[in-house]
Fold this protein.
Amino acid sequence: MMPYPPLGTLYAAAFARQQGYSVALFDSMLATSEDELLNSIRTHKPRVLVIYDDDFNYLTKMCLTRMREAAFTMSVLGKREGCTVVVHGSDPVDHLEKYFANKADIVVCGEGEHTLLDVLNHTIRGVGSKETIDGIAFLEDGSIRRTPERHVEKNLDLFPFPARDLIDVEHYRRIWQEHHGYFSTNIVTTRGCPFHCNWCAKPVYGQVYNTRSPLNVVQEMKYLKQSVRPDHLWFCDDIFGLKPGWVEEFSREVVQNDATIPFKCLARVDLLLKDNAVEHLRAAGCTVVWVGAESGSQKILDAMDKGTTVEQIYRAAKLLKQNNIAVGFFLQYGYPGETMDDIHLTLKMVKECAPDEIGVSVSYPLPGTRFYERVRSEMQEKTNWVDSNDLEMMFAGTFPSNFYRVLHRLTHKKFRAWQGASTLQQVLHSPRKANRKAVRSIAAAVFHSLTLPLYQRKLASFTKGTALETRN
């Protein structure tokens, strides 16, 4: 229950509207069924139905089966109602034949705004021909034809702010307030990532990194502060503040324009150690930084081509805490070659760095990555997760899928136990810290400590006696 609006879709809608098109939005994030689209189509009677993946939500890269099926259902429904169906996203590009079989007319490949505009100009205004539009695929005489790749836009400031007026902001606010006591919404400052982690797909923007100007971002923040009134922002960039000097200028503009809104972002540990980046993040209002720690084993980080070190993870976590910024660790188990010793090193890192939150997953082969090509011959019949909680190993890993599902639970239990123990020490040292949050943390630690042995035994059953409980 932490829904964020489909930011990529809202960018596309804003750009099409800026170019003179009448645009309505069906927000599938808050819909309970694909069939709800039918009422929207019959109300607005569109000539074109655009099914547009949110390029800024990492789950779209995973091409979850549930999401693909939803796209198929909506595509067929739109075609039945007489719409020209245009689909955008990474999964359609990887599976063109499946989307065309489910009534898509055109697939937009790569960055969408300029390509979509050309498609609308052709489809609605009769401008040019499909063959002259870069960055699309379509059927021609029963065969799939794909036009030349379109270059991405380098000047991101030319795009209008996302069309948030097309969504029910108050519906999002109610959900957040009910479940979390505050309202968060999303914003993005960049497109792409220049780093080379070999498991990370870049299906839309490729190996590039383009950045909005700090002032342009701050102007949007000020607009959000005055109109949407969020309590919190999620900067959903793959990497926040990579460009040298960007975070410092951003921080200065936030303060000068009275645009401060508490926010979380994702950063690389090596970048956090440069140019006083953490101090500038704190000054700009950052409260949480998530880092792709991935593993506590340098062997695994090197195998991933991560380009960071375990030592940098430790130093970055310490620096963030010193600046009163909470730390989140993304952890990834199951990378080829990972052993129990590597897993122990990851757990050791979590215990010693004491992040405030963790996210645990297993290595996921995404089409177009070097990792995918490496394990392709070992992949099973299943090539996509059904949903984000699937945790199925789709290649021949060191251990079976159920091992990693148990390890996922065990890691969370250990983390909560360690976190509660630390909270207890703080309360004993300073009783004034014994608030409701601290009591909940301590109580959770007791529960997870009591249930840990069960999961340790389950894990040991997969490892022929190499029991995880032999190490703290």
User: Anything to note?
Assistant: The domain at 7-146 is CATH 3.40.50 (Rossmann fold). The mean pLDDT is 91.
